[in-house]
Design a protein that fits this description.
heterodimer, A: 236 residues, alpha/beta, Rossmann fold, six-stranded mixed β-sheet, 10 strands, B: 283 residues, mainly alpha, two-stranded antiparallel sheet, 11 helices, globular
C-alpha cells in the first residue's frame, strides 16, 4: 500500500499554548485511520493543520509526496483533501443543494452533477430536502450534509472531525455505516472521534493522542482489546 | 402634479441612497465591517467625472466608464492596502482604520482639488424629470442584477458562504481573499454608479460630499437591516422619501435631523432593521 499522507514531528501552537507537540503518523491509500483521545488532546488541531486552516510551528506534512506546509486551505482542497469539520459548520442560511454546490466549488459543473447523484444515493434524505434551508435540518441531517458536502470535491483523503458528536445512538450507527460504505468504495479516511469504541471498530489502524503527543498506535482491533485503551477510553 | 414631482424626487434621492447602501451592506455582510470610507468613494467618482469632462473635455460616456472604473479599483485597493492586513485583528481596529481611510480620502481630495466645489458638466440633455427617471431605472436594474448575482452565480454563492463561515468556506476550496475583493469591487462599482447619478442631479463635486451621503446611506442600510440586499433598497427609499417629505412641508432645515431620528427610532424599536435577522455574534 502506498503512503498517502505522512505527518512528521508536527508542532502546532495557539499563542503560548502548545496544542500538538511533535506527532508523527502516516495514512496509506485505502485505509481508515482514526485518531482517538480525550478533549484537548490535539485531534482537531491536527486535522485543521492538515487542511491548512492552521499553520504548523514546525514539522512536515506530505500528501502524495508533496509538502502541504504553507499551502493555503483552498489549494489543499484542490489537491484532494477534504475536511468535514467539527460541529458540522454547514452554511445554515443556504439550501441543502447550495451547500453541496459549495462542496464542489473547485470542480467543473459537469463533474459535480455526477457526484451529486452519487451523494444523493448515499444520503437519500438530503435529496428529499434539497431545497430546504440547511438551518432547518436536524442534527443528524446536518451531519450528513456536512459529509456530503466534503465528498463533493471528490477527495482522495476524507477527514472527518467528530462526525458522531451530539447525535442520538441510532444516528451514530447510521453515520458509521455510511463511513464504512465510503471506505468500501475506496475512499481513504482519517477519522477523529471521541467515541473510541465505534471508531476502533471500523478503523484499520489507530493512533491515541494524549496532550499533544501520540501515546499509542497500532492495529485498531488490537487497541480495542488493549487494557490501557479500554480503561482510558472505553469505560473499562 | 406637485405630489407626483415629490414622489419622483423621493424615489430619485432614495435610489441614490439605495445604491450606496448596497455597498455598505455587502461589505458588512461579508467581513462585518462598517466601511466608513464607502461614501468617500462616491466623492472620488464625482471628481473623476469632473476631470474627464471639464478638464479633459472628453465625452460623458467616457466619464461614466472611468468614474465607475475608478470607484471599483479604489474600493478593491482600499481593502487590499488598509483592511486585508487587519483581517485577524479585533474588529475595532479595522473600524477605526475605515474612519482613517475616510479622512485620508477627504483631505487628499482637498489637497489635490482644493476645498471649493467643482462644477461637473451635464452628462445628458435630459430634463430634471428625465434624470430622475433614469436614476430610478438604473437603480432598479442594478438591484435586480445584484440579487441574481448573489443568489444564482457561483461567485455569489461563495460570497454568501464566506459571509456565513469564512473557515468553512476555505474548506470548500473557496479563495476567501478573492471573494472579499470581488465584494468590494461590486459594492464600489455600485458607488460609482451612484456617483454618476448623483452628479447628474446635483452637478457638484466637493471633498466632503461623500460624508453626509455615506452617513445617510449607512442609516438606510441599518434601517433596512444591515447585511440584507432588499433591506438596503427599502431603507434607501425610506430615507429618501423622509427627506423629500420634510422638505416639501417646508422644514428643509430639519431634513438631516429627521433621517437620524429615523435611525434612533429603528435602533430602539427594531435594532436588526426591517429585513434584518437577529444573529448571535460570530466567534
Amino acid at each position: 500500500m502506498a503512503t498517502m499522507l505522512s505527518v512528521q514531528d508536527l508542532h502546532v501552537s495557539y499563542g503560548a499554548i502548545k496544542a500538538v507537540q511533535g506527532i508523527s503518523f502516516t495514512i496509506n491509500e485505502g485505509e481508515i485511520v482514526t485518531l482517538i483521545g480525550a478533549n484537548g488532546a490535539g485531534k482537531s488541531t491536527t486535522l485543521n493543520t492538515i487542511a491548512g486552516l492552521l499553520k504548523p510551528e514546525s514539522g512536515s506534512i506530505e500528501f502524495l509526496g508533496e509538502s502541504l506546509v504553507g499551502v493555503q486551505a483552498h489549494r489543499i482542497v484542490e489537491r484532494g483533501i477534504a475536511l468535514c469539520p467539527e460541529g458540522r459548520r454547514v452554511f445554515m442560511q443556504m439550501t441543502v443543494a447550495e451547500n453541496l454546490d459549495m462542496g464542489g466549488y473547485t470542480r467543473k459543473e459537469s463533474e459535480n452533477r455526477e457526484e451529486l447523484a452519487r451523494i444523493y444515493d448515499h444520503f437519500p434524505r438530503l435529496k428529499e430536502r434539497r431545497n430546504q434551508i440547511a438551518g432547518t435540518l436536524s442534527g443528524g441531517e446536518q451531519q450528513m450534509l456536512a459529509m456530503g458536502r466534503a465528498l463533493m470535491s471528490k477527495p482522495r483523503l476524507l477527514m472527518l472531525d467528530e462526525p458522531s458528536m451530539g447525535l442520538a445512538p441510532i444516528l451514530v450507527q447510521e453515520i458509521f455505516e455510511i463511513i464504512k460504505a465510503l471506505h468500501e468504495q475506496g475512499t481513504t479516511i482519517l477519522l477523529v472521534e471521541q467515541n473510541a469504541q465505534m471508531a476502533l471498530s471500523i478503523a484499520d489502524r489507530a493512533y491515541v493522542l494524549e496532550t499533544g503527543t501520540i501515546s499509542m498506535s497500532g492495529e485498531a482491533r488490537a487497541l480495542l482489546n488493549d487494557d490501557r485503551v479500554r480503561k482510558a477510553y472505553l469505560g473499562g | 402634479m406637485t405630489i407626483l414631482t415629490q414622489v419622483l424626487n423621493g424615489l430619485q434621492l432614495g435610489s441614490i441612497y439605495a445604491l450606496v447602501a448596497l455597498g455598505y451592506t455587502m461589505v458588512y455582510g461579508i467581513i462585518l465591517l462598517l466601511n466608513f470610507a464607502h461614501g468617500d468613494i462616491i466623492m472620488v467618482g464625482a471628481y473623476v467625472s469632473w476631470l474627464v469632462m471639464a478638464q479633459l473635455g472628453l465625452s460623458p460616456v467616457i466619464a461614466i466608464v472611468l468614474s465607475i472604473g475608478a470607484c471599483t479599483l479604489l474600493g478593491v485597493l482600499i481593502d487590499k492596502v488598509a483592511y486585508a492586513p487587519l483581517r485577524n485583528a479585533p474588529r475595532l481596529s479595522i473600524l477605526i482604520t475605515a474612519i482613517g481611510v475616510s479622512y485620508f480620502l477627504e483631505n487628499g481630495a482637498q489637497l489635490v482639488f482644493g476645498a471649493d466645489a467643482k462644477v461637473v458638466p451635464s452628462f445628458t440633455d435630459l430634463s430634471a424629470t428625465g434624470v430622475g427617471i433614469l436614476t430610478i431605472v438604473v437603480t432598479a436594474v442594478c438591484t435586480v442584477v445584484l440579487t441574481l448575482l448573489v443568489q444564482k452565480s457561483k461567485i455569489g454563492k461563495a460570497m454568501r458562504a464566506v459571509s456565513e463561515d469564512m473557515g468553512a468556506a476555505r474548506l470548500m476550496g473557496i479563495n476567501v481573499n478573492h471573494t472579499i475583493s470581488f465584494t468590494f469591487a461590486v459594492g464600489s462599482a455600485l458607488a460609482g454608479v451612484g456617483a454618476v447619478l448623483y452628479t447628474m442631479a446635483y452637478t457638484q463635486a466637493t471633498p466632503t460630499m461623500g460624508m453626509m451621503l455615506g452617513t445617510k446611506a449607512f442609516v438606510a442600510a441599518v434601517l433596512g437591516g444591515i447585511g440584507s440586499i432588499p433591506g438596503a433598497v427599502v431603507g434607501g427609499l425610506l430615507v429618501g422619501f423622509a427627506e423629500v417629505l420634510v422638505t416639501a412641508i417646508g422644514l428643509s432645515t430639519w431634513k438631516d435631523a429627521v433621517v437620524f431620528l429615523l435611525l434612533i427610532i429603528v435602533l430602539i424599536v427594531k435594532p436588526t432593521g426591517i429585513f434584518g435577522r437577529s444573529m448571535s455574534e460570530k466567534v
